[in-house]
């Protein structure tokens, strides 16, 4: 159950951070205005809060593992919302990152 909760929190964090950055991008680069930028800033703040909800207590571990989720999530977001088409190296790289997430977060540890 803890692993499922952790994965769900990583997905939510990715949605907040990547979505927030995308909203800011849209507001600035696509000239959609301050409302988009403000929503993006709020989503980025929510990301910071969501990351604290992870069951593991180690900040460095959480953020390091989240980096892999961010890589894969960014490619997925670009594919879904911006028409980006990842090539095989993007996909392989994202899978390697997710494997790293699994090792960092969920490998058995000797305490």
Outline the structure in words:
With 111 residues, this protein is mainly α. The protein has one domain (2-106). The protein has 4 helices and no strands. The chain has helices at 2-29, 34-51, 59-82, 88-106.
User: Uncertain spans, ≥5 residues at pLDDT below 50?
Assistant: none
Largest sheet features: none
SSE ordering:
HHHH
Number of helices: 4
- What helical percentage do the residues reach? over 70%
What topology emerges from the helices and strands here?
Layout: H1 2-29, H2 34-51, H3 59-82, H4 88-106
Helix pairs in contact: 1-2, 1-3, 3-4
What key phrases describe this protein's structure?
single chain; 111 residues; mainly alpha; 80% helix
Summarize the structure.
This protein has helices spanning 2-29, 34-51, 59-82, 88-106. With 111 residues, it is mainly alpha-helical. The model has no long low-confidence stretch (mean pLDDT 96).
